[in-house]
Amino acid sequence: xxxxxxxxxxxxxxxxxxxxxxxxxxxxxxxxxxxxxxxxxxxxxxxxxxxxxxxxxxxxxxxxxxxxxxxxxxxxxxxxxxxxxxxxxxxxxxxxxxxxxxxxxxxxxxxxxxxxxxxxxxxxxxxxxxxxxxxxxxxxxxxxxxxxxxxxxxxxxxxxxxxxxxxxxxxxxxxxxxxxxxxxxxxxxxxxxxxxxxxxxxxxxxxxxxxxxxxxxxxxxxxxxxxxxxxxxxxxxxxxxxxxxxxxxxxxxxxxxxxxxxxxxxxxxxxxxxxxxxxxxxxxxxxxxxxxxxxxxxxxxxxxxxxxx
Length: 309
Prior knowledge:
By secondary structure, this protein is mostly helical. It has one domain. Helices cover 76% and strands 0% of the residues. It has helices at residues 3-15, 17-46, 67-84, 89-112, 125-151, 162-202, 220-241, 245-264, 269-308.
């Protein structure tokens, strides 16, 4: 069987619309069941029927049970990011922004169960982080809205040459290859991260179980490392497709934005929120200026066509 036909079948198997819809239903059922299991575990611990030493305190309060189904929903969002990668660069980037925003929302659910309601609110670390996340989530929600607005205001220059059409086709095919390769890689990372996190709960650290600095970073820290590699490859391949200055800057800017999001996992507190907001604000600014360039080029082409007539 021809390798291109085999690849196309694999791509359809992993990233077709039908697979997406099936994955959505499966994830929703898993999220619902996991929520119930989490609540049951909290109840069993509360009545001293079982004992689990969970360092992240996710089994102390029923509110924190929302964290578990939200985690599975985030995994589905990761799949959607890969799904949209071959279809649209701007949608792919917006999915990155949505994922990091949902991570902050998920963190809010966890922090809600650890709040210390006292007059010393601004001197307690957990309460301060909750405040930072609350403000950042609203601000990010608005920035993502603006990004979606800019994404729909794309002015495309008209290029009908066969070489240009062939170049675009090859670029889309390359993106399909990368997206198809990302699915099993991310699945392996997800399983590996979950197993190591489970070991860190049920075995003491001296037994060489992997310790995580922050439960919110599990899977996503490694995920964004892989994403940066994929984005660098896409950036290099894009040079075969176009050498337009504004498109090169746009693709490079999106890569910088992804790197800033990855760096945010390495820090805590308000610096974490500042890096995330800066990443999305930078990506939004890049897209806004890129659209200005595209609009100007379209206007020049229209003026040229009018003068020829």
